[in-house]
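Here's my example:
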Amino acid sequence: MMVLAQEKPTTPVNEQQLEMQAERDEGVTDDDSQWQQLEYLQKHPLNLNAASENDLKNLRLLTDLQISNFLLYRNLLGPLLHVNELQAVPAWDVPSIKRLLPYVTVSDQKNIVENLGERFKNGEQTLLLRLAQTVSTSGEAAKTTQSYLGSAAALMVRYKYNYKNLLQFGITGDKDAGEQFFKGTQKNGFDFYSFHFFARKLGIIQSLAIGDFTVGFGQGLIQWQGMAFKKSAEVLAVKRQGAPLQPYNSAGEYNFHRGIGVTLQKKDLQFTAFGSFRKLNTNLVSDSFLNSPEYISSIITTGYHRTLAELNDRNNVQCITTGAALKLANSRSHIGINAVQYQLSKPLQPSGRAYDQYAINGRNWSNYSVDYSYTFRNMHVYGEMAVDKLLNRAIINGLLASLDPKVDLAIVYRNINSRYQSLFSNAFTENSLPVNENGCYAGLSIRPVACWKLDVYMDVFRFPWLKYQVNAPSDGHEYLVQLAYMPNKYLEMYTRFRQETKSINETDSLPGISPIVPVTRLNWRTHINFRLNKTIELRSRVETVWYARSSKQKETGFLFYTDIYVKPAFKPWFFNARAQYVETDNYNSRIYAFENTVLYNFSIPPLFNKAFRYIINVNYRLTHRTVMQQSRNLNCLFSLSVAQTLYPSGTSIESASTLSEAYNRLDAKLQIILTRH
């Protein structure tokens, strides 16, 4: 049996998943709840002998097949005696266990739930202060930022109290760059405030949420907020999982509910209900000639309120959301019924364009679904069947199977009607929203011998109706092959090839005629992590991209970077730095790379044209002995991040909504985190 050494990772989430999500959707979620949760668990590990199914799902590091097998193993053989015993659980492999180890422990302590008074007294308090400033080196971009009403600085303040994840509450204030602060339209300071109170395991009350929270039902066809990944090199990470209600205290201003929610559980029966009242940012349109009432042409999700135009769209529509879910579950299976209803103060109305023909229309909308799962030996099946207000259907079915101790399989089939619509949803689809898509995904993870791992997937999909910039029904496919080599704890490397083909309108066609043409994108990446010793780690990556639009437009791109991470033992300081070079023919051949900044924050900018970029992050931790002798439980972490791009031949502006988002800029962030245990 291999003895596993517990080591804390340098990043709490899968960077590859975030990079692929950024490439697919040209943006990633602002919800950093997963970072906060895993960072907390590094200091307060989850006891596997007392962990519930929801506790394990909330980690988002295990598949449902692994969770189900673990619970059956523990029920059959009793509490674990040592963490190495995890290797005996069916479908648990060494890489998955290593990824899990920093956040869990094995203890014979019973799961004692303290009274409410105890929860309010002995929790961990955290105060985060963050200042970010972007200095553009582009003259035109600088002129654009002058039209903003507020300063160029971005501010964030967050206070959070957490007692063993049984009680959490806090408040967040956020000001984006260009927004006013304690003046003008922002007399109360921050542009966005968020408050949350969240309690778990209060007798029959499994979860109680007051203020801001997220909701996840089924497989995301009718409701899923917060972080959720799609296709990536983690080929088995295809199922949506987690408790129905989760606390929300991030800076994103759209993807959450505001109100009250509760989950009740009695033996195998679980019931969740919530109500939310929020104001949304929307584009309102009216026909002055016909004297028609205003209607919503689109919902704005950016959260920016920097100009008069953006302020006019702020909080101009009220949205009342109610929902409920009833689930019957045991250790092997579950079946659930879910419903969500929306009431808007003004009606939504499609744009009139052909691709927008089936968009949500009116002030009321609703979605309903049934979801299920069943585990039989080393096979786990799951799915969700949903309908909307007009009874348009959407289906997702999946299979996770351990074919052999060295081979795991994932299959996902989806059939989503072109007329099906939903709000606040996020399913495992090619599209950013679950709409207008049929497809089948198959992924295979193979560990042929020790130290080697092969991950492959193929996805074939079809869009029965028109899409934005695609004026006809279309189809496509995508496949990925990744080979990883991990001979010891000092070296990890992988090489990956990915190919994707989809259709888009031909731009050089005759007037009035827009045929669709295939667009193919190929990426080849090689990445190496090498730990010189316990103090220094090096990371390097080389990536090449080929882009072809029909036979006329072809582009190539190249990226190389090297990281150094230095974290001396028993020293209060640690830092990391990156030197990076990118060269592409144009924006279409852009490349995405995850960038570490300050804690709970990251960046994945599109890299394009010819440029050199550097990043420097410096951290210094003041322990309780250096801050104040009589306050031994107070810690302070100072972080400074600086990133700049240098273009050897003039400036270059990315294809963005405003010139101020040009990639040719210097970004600086200063953050202070005070923690009291």
Q: What stands out?
A: The radius of gyration is 25 Å. Residues 126-183+541-549+558-677 form one domain. The chain is about 10% helix and 50% strand.
